[in-house]
Amino acid sequence: MISLNDFYQGFRDPQTIRHLAQLIAQQAAKTTEQINIMEVCGGHTQTIMKYGLLQLLPDNIHFIHGPGCPVCVMPKERIDHAATLASQADTILVTLGDMIRVPGSMGSLAQFRAKGCDIRPIYDPLDTLKIAQDNPDKTVIFFAIGFETSTPMTAALLAQAEALKIDNILFHINHVLVPPAIDAVMSDSRSKVNAFIGPAHVSVISGAQIYQSTVDQYKTPVVVSGFEPVDVMESILRITRQKVAGKAELDNQYSRSVSYEGNIAAQQLVDKYFMVRDSFRWRGLGPIAKSALTLRPEYHHRDAERIYAKVLPTTEIDDHKACMCGDILRGLANPKDCKVFGRGCSPQTPLGSCMVSSEGACNAYYRYGEVNHDI
Questions:
Q1: Three-state DSSP class for 313?
Q2: Is 6 exposed, middle or buried (0-12, 13-18, 19+ CB in 10 A)?
């Protein structure tokens, strides 16, 4: 019987990590190219910072942190949507984790909850079913966020609500897609990215196949990686070997969990309930065509964005002028480049979304980097 320990046993071994670092250095010495690796997922950023992997790499290998944090890419006007919905009479707003603390233009959801709005953080979307059943006189709105990883759970919640005829559950859909975000990064003439570490959890659902177009269009290696430090170091080694060989290929380091095709059943469930939006505005990246999902027309009766359209704000709102979160999400800046990082902007008092989420680059640098906080 497989235990949870089996998935990370040995993948944090210091001796193995040091050996991989030596192999990476040997390979990197064979090329004069600057290797700029974007780890798309914030979970990888956390691993890189927590285990000090930056300090183990040779000078010609750099990490550029990407937009793969679902909380970080949520624009202020969408957070204002959530706050507005939570302020409606007889309404319960339900959402996941860190979303509660992300600042919108009117404040964070945590601040609205302090004012008396019924806002409930959950860790399993299916918990929404019981909340709705226990409060039949209230409208329960699930503010859905996340990449391809979490979308199947929202679809499963919708399927259950339909099957059980729980009519007081509505959805505000903010599910976004990884490949269009990569295209947005690479289409920027200022981008220096020439290799990618592909997200692990996203790839379990969608399969490694979704990155083939990135390899083909931009001639850059993509290695799908697990989250443990040994996973990340092995993925760096695989990228470096490709660079030395002059190759650009799709590679799957995380084969113990990821296949090329992905989870077909989960993909079919998502396709049943969702379709691609024409456009979606990302925090820091701006509008990206075909980069997010929305409910199919046959489920418009559960679409809070349509039902409450008359009261939801429509003005697009940018981040605080002093916040560099947008440039960080684009891979154009490092958290330490920001003048307010650790000086007025911290996990306790965030100015931007990159500092709020546990997957945000600023949060990772603040927690694990050598930073003089608030001086």
A1: coil
A2: exposed
CA distance readout (Å), 192 to 34, 63, 185 = 9, 10, 9
Task: Output the CA–CA distances (angstroms, integers) from residue 118 to 101, 124, 304, in the order listed.
Answer: 15, 18, 16
What is each CA distance from 48 to 17, 64, 65, 333, 372, in whole angstroms?
A: 12, 11, 10, 17, 20
Residue partners of 76: CB distance under 8 A and separation at least 6: 103, 104, 105, 283, 317, 318, 319
Q: What is the mean pLDDT of the chain?
A: 93
What are 325-366's pLDDT values in tens digits? 989 999 999 999 999 999 889 998 888 889 988 889 999 999
Query: DSSP code of 337?
Result: G
End-to-end CA distance of the chain: 51
**How distant is the alpha carbon of residue 213 from its chain centre?**
20
pLDDT tens-digit series, residues 145-189: 999 999 999 999 999 999 999 999 999 999 999 999 999 999 999
Query: Given the DSSP bridges, would you call strands 35-41 and 195-198 parallel, antiparallel or unpaired?
Result: parallel
The pTM (predicted TM-score) of the whole model is 0.92
Q: Which two tokens stand for residue 77?
A: 């006007």
Angle between helix 14-28 and helix 229-245 axes, rounded to 10 deg? 10
Give me the amino acid identity at 131: I
Inter-CA distances, 92 with 143, 171, 235, 291, Å? 10, 12, 43, 28
Q: How far apart are CA 77 and CA 314, in angstroms?
A: 7
